[in-house]
Amino acid sequence: MSYKILFKQKDFLNLYSKIILKIELQLDNYIGKKNLDYDNNYDTFSIFIENKKIIVLNKRENLKQIWMATTKTGYHFSFIKGIWICIRNKVEFWYILNKELRIALKGDIDI
C-alpha cells in the first residue's frame, strides 16, 4: 500500500524534532536500576542500556518517514491521519517504542 505524503519538508522536520525531544525528556527522567543513556547525532538518535545500543531512530527526509531499528527487527513509520504508524504492521510508534524499551529494561518505562 502506498501512502501519500501530504505535508511539507519543514513540517516533517518539526514533527521529528518533537518526537526526539519527548523521548529525550522521558529518558532524562528515567529512574531505574539499569544505566539508560542516549545520543542524538544529526540524523541518528540512539538509545543505550548498560552501554549497549538497543534502539536507533533515523529520519528519512526524502520519504518523510521515521525508521526504528532494534536489536531484533526494524520498523518504518509514516505520518498517517496525525499519528506515526508502522507501514508494515499498522502499529503506532509510541506503542512499539515503549514495548521495545520495556523488553530491554525488563520493566516499566513509558514514553
UniProtKB/TrEMBL annotation:
GO terms for biological process: iron-sulfur cluster assembly. The keyword NADP does not apply. Keywords: Iron. GO terms for molecular function: ferric iron binding. InterPro entries: Frataxin/CyaY, Frataxin/CyaY_sf. One of its GO terms (cellular component) is cytoplasm. NCBIfam families: FeS_CyaY. Belongs to the frataxin family. This is Iron donor protein CyaY. It comes from Buchnera aphidicola. The gene is cyaY.
